[in-house]
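Worked example 2:
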Amino acid sequence: MARFDPRCYPCALRRALCTAEKVSDDAWLQHKVLDEAMRHLSDVESHLPPAEVIGDLLGAVHEVLGTGDPWKKQRDLWVQEMVEAYPDLKARVLADEDPLGRALLMSARSNVFANEIQSTHSIRQDLQKLGLRESDSADQKFRHDDRSDFEKRLESSKRLVFIHDTAPEVAADLVLIDQFRQKNPQLEMTHLVKRSPLALHDVGDLLAESGPLEALGNVLSIGNRLGVSADEWEPEVAEAMESADLIVLKGASHLQTLESDKWPAFGLFRAKCPVTASSYHCSIGDLIFIRF
């Protein structure tokens, strides 16, 4: 499991600064944010996972900025674009000779939004690998792939919990979940989503009854962290997790922070930084589907 190491410090400070830049170009305010970030990081315990440290750091940054949702404009733009792409994502999967395999790759590639400090151009380059246009070179395989184990469990599962990561990737996640249902029509689904304004995570009304996307099961909120913490779960979330036969953890932050190996969980994500890449013996940008 990844731990907060020296390579995490520059990234943490960059994420703090980028958050400040979403609010103001005032150099004084940006210095104040970085001062607070450095004070916060000076007391960090190195055994903690990066997601926990950075989540707490960004919470402190939000307090300094005095605004609840600095990433709202960017998040809403990406959500709109991915919602509009949803029919094409679904059609691309259904046209593939291996629909489940294609849906897994597309969901993992969409995890690029977890690295909110990437430029728009960089994110779009990554999204070309979804293969929605004939000229695009689509992903063909995972760097690590535990799909065979997953499919065996999927066939006999009654309840599946899907822990979503950022809001823009929910559209691709739904295409994947639909394929789970194709493999196991009796599967009971629970979506666990973030309501946190940290980065691009707030799903908001995306899966509400009147929202732009239709949930494929019950929708529950899991708090405001970047990762997950059982200590913060409401009783219905704890019940869903404890009764699940299968759990999909979208995003590396969830693998970093879910305590214990008792969960029947699989991680699905894009490696976004050197620490994650070294932890999973892969390169930045590689796609991972791995047993927890």
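The first helix runs from residue 8 to 21. The chain has two domains: 8-65, 72-291.
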